[in-house]
Amino acid sequence: MAAKWVGRCPDCGTWGTVNEVAVLSTVHGAAVRRAVAPASPAVPISSIDPGATRHFHTGISELDRVLGGGLVPGSVTLLAGDPGVGKSTLLLEVAHRWAETGRRALYLSGEESAGQIRLRAERTGCSHDEVFLAAESDLQTALGHIEAVQPSLVVVDSVQTMSTAEVDGVTGGVTQVRAVTTALTMAAKTTGVAMLLVGHVTKDGAIAGPRSLEHLVDVVLHFEGDRASALRMVRGVKNRFGAADEVGCFLLHDNGIECVADPSGLFLDQRPAPVPGTAVTVTLDGKRPLIGEVQALIGSASTGSPRRAVSGIDSSRAAMITAVLEKRAHLSVGSYDIYLSTVGGMRLTDPSSDLAVALAIASAYADIPMPATAVAIGEVGLAGDLRRVTGMDRRLSEAARLGFTSAIVPPGVKDGPAGLRLLNADNIGGALRVLREIADNKG
Ligand SMILES: Nc1ncnc2c1ncn2[C@@H]1O[C@H](COP(=O)(O)OP(=O)(O)OP(=O)(O)O)[C@@H](O)[C@H]1O
Ligand SMILES: [Mg+2]
């Protein structure tokens, strides 16, 4: 132990290994503990009014769905997404709809000038008088704006461009982002304002700043979308007031953002006409269901050892499924070259995609296209049996939500969501029979 800072340990001689430890002031060897009288005493849980955490509709149905009904006063919601995905457009629309119902909204932008936002408002028809604008990147001034305007909704675009003089560090850095979010959370809790924060994402898709940013806020939403298409999805990642596995669908146009209450037709329109060798499954990414597509191509019969090229799927699992198809379903694919791939670089490591892999290979081999309205979910065992997988309800709901009308599933899966026909197959042979039937009836 040393009373002053030392770079080198006096005992062992190594550098940088001595840590600083704060010493508690002690009286006769015991640490001094002082109790402070609380400003607001603790109260019985039953005496707290639950009405204070009611959801207020944002006026955008798809966003309300993800939020679990709407925005809760005093809550902080973080919306994270890639550059240019449409975050500012969506949140300006939220502010506008909020104002339309007679409430006041304040839009604080640290990225764009008030003029730029006004231009967007003109283009998207979001210029309601009760939407207040301020181009501000200083946190203290931003808090001042909130006090002056007295809104019930505040949009902060974005948390990475706000900075405070109270802590060191560069704007957008870990220390600043944390300090800004903490201050905004405090402001939301004390004033009862619903706060919507825009967050930037890093190259690998995480929210820029510390991971703990997600702990500081009440709701975390991810805004996803492909530049090549107008479809945008808002996914709940964390929600203290509702389910965190909801998805909201939108279309981003030149003149604003539009809710897609029924994305099924849209999703299927984007898919080309069914071709042999493709099968769709629903995988779970954490708690989030994702639609994935497996593609298979059967090459020519090899005299030597056949080629197996796999991308996005576990190669040993693919080899096992091929062997099961050969032995249990009497599909003599063993001597052919087989190429397997997922679409869009997706990784299907979950065993629930086994059945889709098997059906993609069988569909390519027998030249039977699987209908574009069908999904296949299930694990394939070595005996050719089909096994149930976790989160079946969630997967089936996602399939139903995205417009699929039939699902090939293992035995015992009985209750599906409305609109989704469950086709139980006991084993891999049964699944191939079901595939033939639905291909004949087109789903
Ligand atoms: N003048 C315009 N006409 C048509 N479309 C436009 C126009 N300006 C922007 N857009 C569209 O709006 C999209 C999203 O804009 P928006 O500013 O809402 O995204 P953002 O997620 O806030 O981006 P950033 O991360 O840069 O803040 C753009 O990618 C573009 O396709
Ligand atoms: Mg923006």
Question: What integer value in Å does the Rg equal?
Answer: 28 Å
Counted beta strands: 20
Task: Decide which structural class fits the backbone.
Answer: alpha/beta
- Unreliable stretches (pLDDT < 50, length at least 5) are none
The proportion of residues in beta strands is 15-25%
**How many domains make up the coordinates?**
2
Average pLDDT level: 86
Number of helices: 11
CA-to-CA gap between the ends? 75 Å
CATH architecture group name of the largest domain: 3-Layer(aba) Sandwich
Question: Characteristics of this structure?
Answer:
single chain, 443 residues, alpha/beta, Ribosomal Protein S5, domain 2, nine-stranded mixed β-sheet, four-stranded mixed β-sheet, 11 helices, 20 strands, binds adenosine-5'-triphosphate, binds magnesium ion, hydrolase activity, AAA+_ATPase, ATP-binding
Explain what the structure shows.
The protein is built from eleven helices and 20 strands. It has 443 residues and is an alpha/beta fold. It has two domains: 53-261, 3-Layer(aba) Sandwich (Rossmann fold), CATH 3.40.50.300; 267-441, Ribosomal Protein S5, domain 2, CATH 3.30.230. Helix 9 packs across helix 11 (428-441). The protein is globular, with a radius of gyration of 28 Å. The chain starts with 25 loop residues before the first strand and ends with a helix. The mean pLDDT is 86. The site of magnesium ion has 4 residues, from helix 2. One of its GO terms (cellular component) is cytosol. It holds the Pfam family ChlI. InterPro entries: AAA+_ATPase, DNA_repair_RadA, P-loop_NTPase, RecA_ATP-bd, Ribosomal_Su5_D2-typ_SF, Ribsml_uS5_D2-typ_fold_subgr, Rubredoxin_2.
